[in-house]
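== Polypeptide entry ==
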Amino acid sequence: MRLPDHAPTRAEAERDEHQVCDDCPGCWCHDHDEDCDTVVGMTEIAARLDVSIHTVRAWRLYGRLPEPDWQLATGPVWLWATIEEWHDA
């Protein structure tokens, strides 16, 4: 899967008739009832799993999180599906 050149802004998402999802930080879905391939960092993981960012950092430090799908200059990122699969296991 290739990442887009940039994440759409809220205005771009609304213009393109995507549903801007306020329930999932960083999520732009066509239909929120369907699972989307949202890219998430540690902050979004903490918010979605309702844990502190310190907990997510500890999981990463001790190798409990899956390997990131991509490593960016700003840090590791995962597809939400990767995290969901790991969390549900």
